[in-house]
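User: What would this chain look like folded?
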Amino acid sequence: MERNDKHGFTDFFLLSLEKNGLESLITQEHIDKFFLLTEHMLTVNEQFNLTAIREPSRVILLHYIDSLIGAHLFPEGASVIDVGAGAGFPTLPLAIVRPDLRITALDSTAKRVNYIGETAALLELKNITPLVGRAEEIAKDAAYREQFDCATARAVAALPVLSELCLPFVTLGGRFIAMKGRGGKEELAASQNAIQLLGGKEAALFDAPVLAPDGETFAHTTVVIEKIAKTAPKYPRAYGKIAKAPL
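Assistant: Here's the prediction, encoded as structure tokens.
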């Protein structure tokens, strides 16, 4: 598929959505925004490395569909923080199809956060707030600590590490939604102590691989951790300690 082939892009996107049971999420206006997002991202990517995925069909499957499989898990009107938002996934796809969500895109790299902000303006998305900072530091700030209905993260770190970075942002009764690939079940098993210490309860795991129109599959699991108790003030620790000695 050529980058400027909107017809081919639309056909492949619609087939991919249908294959994964997501077709009800998308309107023609959404498709126009996803096409513009792809064009913009791949153009910026030539100057600033955002993604190693450059083929539009792969962008659709491995960025867009992968980000949208768990879209139904976010409650209506929820405030969401995307921890380690990177190139804007899942922030940008979620913001397009779920305008009811209020998403804060957090990343430690200013260039990436600026890109997300510029892209949100280009796509006329009013529900994204870019935020530069390290999760373990921002989570100590009362303006953000336990202030979000949901935290989410995709392809950032192993689940025991992610739990310590993300659960402190989640309010009581909220949830941490982790988007994982291969090994999600094993990561969840290794996270039970961290989840309990950080105020979460036993998580639910949804195994929903991304299905390509040609039958190819890509591993995807979504872990949902409910927040049932406040996170102790000592968490999150400094990142070096988190990485060296996960809970």
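The mean pLDDT is 95. If you want, I can go into more detail on any region.
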